[in-house]
């Protein structure tokens, strides 16, 4: 059966069960989703390894009780950063300007072992 040029308007469909439907090559354009509530979403067992952070500007950041290992940080501008109880191991700091202006730092209980590359 071939059905062509069918116009359907003002159709109310209720209590329909659709099973085993394959939808392919669907284009959705100009879709607005409003008032969507996602509740009880659990994200577990996420592993981040070998992360490179470049060209990051951090302002007014408070970091407490953080352990960073094998982190490569390049071209980072830090302003008004409070670091407390931070253990940095195997940190490579590269591409820092020669005239570094660091102000308003509150550093306490730092154990730093820096390897210059």
Question: What's the short version?
Answer:
This is Pentapeptide repeat-containing protein. The protein has 117 residues and is mostly beta strands.
Inertia-based shape: elongated
What percent of residues are in strands?
Answer: 25-35%
Average pLDDT rating = 58
Rg is 27 Å
Give the terminus-to-terminus CA distance.
72 Å
Helix content: under 10%
Describe the sheet with the most strands: 5 strands, parallel
Could you tell me the number of beta strands? 8
Structural class: mainly beta
Task: Detail the poorly predicted runs.
Answer: none
* Helix-strand topology string: EEEEEEEE
Number of helices, counting only DSSP H or I runs of 4 residues or more:
0
Protein name: Pentapeptide repeat-containing protein
Organism: Zoarces viviparus (Viviparous eelpout)
Q: How would you describe what is shown here?
A:
The chain is an all-beta fold and 117 residues long. It has a domain at 52-114. The chain is built from no helices and eight strands. The protein has strands spanning 52-59, 62-64, 67-69, 72-79, 82-84, 87-94, 106-108, 111-114. The chain is elongated. The termini are far apart. 0% of the residues are buried. This is Pentapeptide repeat-containing protein.
List the helices and strands and how they pair.
Blueprint: E1 52-59, E2 62-64, E3 67-69, E4 72-79, E5 82-84, E6 87-94, E7 106-108, E8 111-114
Parallel strand pairs: 1-4, 2-5, 3-6, 4-6, 5-7, 6-8
List keywords for this structure.
single chain, 117 residues, 8 strands, mainly beta, 5-stranded parallel beta sheet, 3-stranded parallel beta sheet
């Amino acid at each position: 059966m071939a059905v062509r040029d069918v116009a359907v308007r003002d159709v109310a469909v209720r209590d329909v069960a659709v099973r085993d439907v394959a939808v392919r090559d669907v284009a959705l354009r100009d879709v607005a989703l409003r008032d969507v509530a996602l509740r009880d979403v659990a994200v577990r067992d996420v592993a981040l390894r070998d992360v490179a952070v470049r060209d990051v500007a951090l302002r007014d950041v408070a970091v407490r009780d953080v352990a960073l290992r094998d982190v490569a940080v390049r071209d980072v501008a830090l302003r008004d950063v409070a670091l407390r109880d931070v253990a940095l191991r195997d940190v490579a700091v590269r591409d820092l300007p020669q005239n570094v202006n660091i102000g308003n730092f509150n550093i306490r209980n730092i154990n730093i072992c820096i390897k210059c590359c």
